[in-house]
Design goal:
Blueprint lengths: L23 H24 L4 H6 L3 H9 L6 E3 L2 H13 L7 H16 L14 H18 L1 H5 L8 H10 L6 H18 L8 H16 L27 H19 L2 H4 L10 H15 L8 E3 H9 L6 H17 L8 H18 L1 H10 L1 H16 L2 H23 L1 E7 L5 E4 L10 E7 L7 H7 L10 E5 L9 H16 L3 E7 L1 H10 L1 H5 L4 E3 L6 H21 L1
Parallel strand pairs: 5-6, 6-7, 7-8
Antiparallel strand pairs: 1-2, 3-4, 3-5
Helix pairs in contact: 1-14, 1-15, 1-16, 3-13, 3-15, 4-11, 5-11, 5-13, 6-16, 6-18, 6-19, 9-10, 9-16, 11-19, 17-18, 18-19
Length: about 575
């Protein structure tokens, strides 16, 4: 495997240059990001049922490799909540143990393989996932994050599979919450709020809350569950883990779902955090970088990883300027685990629960403007957003993302069909062209010009056909149909539709002329026999001058009408 090092072009020219060494701000930012990875990584792994240590290790090798190879230089590659939950869902569906290191390694490596297929331009797939669907998906993920830690935060575990029902059940059973656990959670949230109120501490508010409340619980000997009760954290670097190859058939399909979820999240990082040096990001290169991170991370006890917007935001807000900030974060986290990893075992679970409630709440609150915008934009988009949200809260995540992709495709098809236009072009007194509604009937002995702008998508053609002028009784009428805006390769439905319409006009004693035909379309018309059906002059090629084919077709049409009139006289 070859790891390419993308070099950022200088702002003043097209030459590429090697990145320099880390700056002081990169080192400081990397240290803060590495420390932040402790509570967030462990919490995300915990809510998905994985060993919290695997969440820690996801911030080591993936972060280093991803930062060295990505084109978005500030992107931090690590475990995210959506990736953790999707991975859990995939393993559950396959009937595999989410705490088995071999199963995790297999899934992570398969995700890496799928991501490396970014070389085949799979990043373009995300252009077909609508913003409304992504908002519904991310909001549903945020709700899953919250419901996943209700037991850790209050000591009461809701008893419904549906996430919305779990939230309602949790609120209804407030008297069943454990007092001590709930109090520690409340103090954690309060400390976070206080730290966030200080501008200089905003980027490390989660870290401050974790350290301060954990220290307070230890000093006061408060009896609550600790991380050590779930898993011991060895004071060692992640070791080599061999994948369980027998699990490949069961996990191959799910790995695609995990990779798509990771891609969807990472795609929003480059627009949110552009490269400080002015160089361009590339979604496909970023996708491959995440693939490298998973291939190596999967061999060293890491969960599947991808571009993390929250971890990238922490790095940027704490001073990151180059890709070295991400590298330092991974190295620093490894040193912390190596030197004092056992201290993390004393972190109270209610502290992690409180921090995750905060993270989930921030994610939902941060989406409020996007949700409002979708609701005000389109009923179809609103329905897609709501359906995706409900699917994310009730179905396995890999099924929810597939459903979201299908909904996006349906939205795209509906919008494409609606955008198709048919307008009449009429001469003005000054010699130009005026846009009018198409006439209902073709007038005899008249050249009518109609412009068709669409995608030739089969769903739009019934509406277009109903708006074309009726040729019944239109003797010696010529319809010039301008098709310059049609795609080079139209649907077979369009060719059949044009053949039928040409036959109707011909049967009435008129003719159809296609103007502004691009060369690829002209070849298809010839191969299909439609060109021969239209006859000589029935296909007028496109020209650089926009209205030149129309002028030629109109002139030819008038001569055709005059010739028919002479023949009949």
């Amino acid at each position: 495997m070859h790891l390419s090092w993308p070099r950022s072009p200088r702002k003043t020219g097209g030459q590429r240059s090697r990145p320099g060494g880390p700056t002081a701000s990169d080192i400081g930012s990397g240290a803060v990001t590495g420390l932040f990875s402790i509570p967030e990584g462990m919490a995300y792994a915990s809510i998905a049922g994985f060993n919290p240590v695997a969440g820690l290790y996801a911030g080591v090798v993936p972060a280093i490799v991803g930062s060295l190879t990505s084109r978005t230089v500030l992107m931090i590659t690590t475990l995210t909540s959506a990736i953790a939950l999707t991975s859990q869902s995939v393993l559950d569906d396959a009937g595999l143990d989410p705490r088995d290191a071999g199963h995790i390694a297999t899934l992570t490596l398969l995700v890496g393989v799928v991501m490396l297929m970014g070389a085949l331009r799979l990043g373009a797939v995300m252009t077909f996932v609508s913003n409304a669907v992504m908002i519904g998906f991310s909001t549903g993920i945020a709700l899953q994050i919250i419901t996943g830690v209700l037991k850790d935060a209050t000591g009461y575990r809701p008893r419904h599979p549906n996430k919305l029902a779990q939230l309602v059940d949790w609120l209804v059973h407030v008297p069943d919450w454990q007092g001590t656990t709930t109090a520690v959670t409340a103090v954690t949230v309060a400390v976070w709020v206080g730290a966030r109120a200080v501008q200089r501490l905003r980027s490390v508010a989660l870290l401050i809350a974790m350290v301060a409340v954990s220290a307070g619980v230890a000093l006061l000997s408060v009896d609550v569950a600790l991380v050590g009760g779930i898993a011991s954290i060895p004071a060692s670097l992640p070791s080599f883990t061999a994948p369980d190859l027998s699990a490949v058939p069961a996990l191959a399909g799910g790995a695609v779902s995990v990779a798509l979820v990771a891609l969807a999240q990472a795609a929003g990082i480059a627009p949110a955090e552009p490269n400080p040096d002015g160089s361009r990001s590339d979604a496909n290169d970023d996708f491959r970088a995440q693939g490298y991170a998973n291939l190596l991370g999967g061999l060293f006890q890491s969960l599947p990883s991808g571009g993390s917007l929250s971890r990238t935001g922490v790095a940027v807000s704490s001073g990151a300027r180059t890709r070295w900030a991400g590298v330092v974060s991974g190295v620093f986290l490894a040193l912390v685990v190596l030197v004092c990893g056992s201290l993390a075992e004393h972190i109270p679970m209610p502290v992690i629960g409180g921090l995750i409630l905060v993270i989930g709440g921030e994610l939902i609150w941060g989406r409020r403007h996007d949700v409002r915008l979708v609701l005000r934009t389109s009923r179809l988009s609103s329905a897609a957003m709501v359906l995706t949200f409900l699917a994310t809260t009730q179905l396995p995540l890999q099924q929810a993302i597939v459903l979201g992709a299908v909904l996006s495709l349906l939205l795209y098809c509906v919008q494409v069909a609606r955008q198709a236009k048919l307008v009449a072009l009429n001469r003005t007194e000054s010699g130009g062209w005026r846009v009018d509604a198409p006439p209902r009937h073709l007038a005899p002995d008249t050249v009518t010009v109609v412009d068709y702008a669409g995608s030739s998508f089969f769903a739009e053609l019934p509406r277009i056909e109903s708006r074309l002028p009726s040729p019944d009784g239109a003797r010696r009428a010529v319809l010039v149909l301008v098709v310059r805006a049609l795609p080079d390769v139209p649907s077979s439905t369009l060719v059949g539709f044009l053949a039928r319409y040409a036959h109707r006009i011909s049967a009435a004693g008129g003719r159809l002329v296609l103007a502004g035909v691009q060369p690829p379309l002209a070849r298809i018309l010839e191969d299909s026999g439609l060109g021969e059906q239209l006859g000589e002059g029935g296909v007028v090629p496109a020209e650089p001058e926009l209205f030149a084919p129309v002028e030629k077709a109109v002139a030819d049409g008038r001569r055709w009408i005059a010739a028919r009139q002479e023949q009949e006289e």
